[in-house]
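Shipment paperwork, digital attachment
Item: protein structure file
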Amino acid sequence: MALIDVVKYQAEENEFIWKFPSNDLRIGTQVVVNPAQHAFFIKGGIILDEFTSGTHTVKTENIPLLNKIINLPFGGNSPFQAEVWYVNLLSKLDNKWGTTNPILLEDPKYGIIIPVRAFGQFGFKISNPRIFLETLTGNLPSFSAEKIQEYFKGKIISSLTSLISKKLVRENISILEINVFLDELSLFCQENISDEFKKFGLEIVNFYFMSINVPLDDPSVVKLKEAKDLAAKVKITGKELYQMDRSFDVLDNAAKNEGGVAGNLMGAGLGLGLGVGLGNQMSNVSGNLNTQNTPPPPPTMLYYVLINNQQNGPLSFDQLKQLIVDVRVNKQTMAWKTGMENWVLITEIPEVSNLFNQTPPPPPAV
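Attachment content:
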């Protein structure tokens, strides 16, 4: 093979490492390094010298180690074998990345775990050619942008879960609001991923989130939206007005219930206990609008009883008293009231046991 007088490389956009195809060089060979390129002179696996942009003539004076490694019996133009490697320093900006499978993130506002998919792109360039050549290339004759992208895509995806979670928690951002913060999130991830690239002589030029998506029909997403809507409703109407609205719903549902004693009582208009409780709530709201010093009224006590093994309630004290008068409830009836842990005999409830002494016993049989 003829000796090589000129070594040069016409860089390609997607090629970042390229080895000159011939090892037959001679003293006096010119090595041409174009802008945005870096070249290495290698003999026996040892880097003898590096060349930046410009034209360089191979001389033992230029490369002191060369004289120690090769034997030059033929004078100034002696042939020898060595390798010239080129590194492309251009930036590659259009590298796409995306999550193959959804990553699971916990929404910091509502505590619901959501499957999330993210897509974007990143740009990189070789900032330290020597480290890149020594750590990633090995003895491969070339190293393409696709190989770099494939290698670091896994590292990017594995880092995203913790990075996105940290950003959401620090800023208290709901996953449903995350697309508003894509620019901030992109910068945050770029700063944190850059250290991993630097280990291999690479620099992240840019990093973007193009979209972050959640499956709208996923049960967890539906649950999260319901939680967000509820929080918004409470915030807009206020907690007390929202509780009053819920009380209306309870009354409406109870009135529609046609089964059981309690349902019949509510249908007959005897659910005044709940109505009184609701009136108290409305009074609380009105009072709070007029003064901040009026203490709230005591909560209405509600009772539940078992009649024919069926649960009936909630009942006000007056409703319960009427059931005792009507002999629907007796001393053997099991009962429960707000705040109790278990069901007990109704006579074990102090304020109720006295009711049995105020009503006459059943008349004697004739």
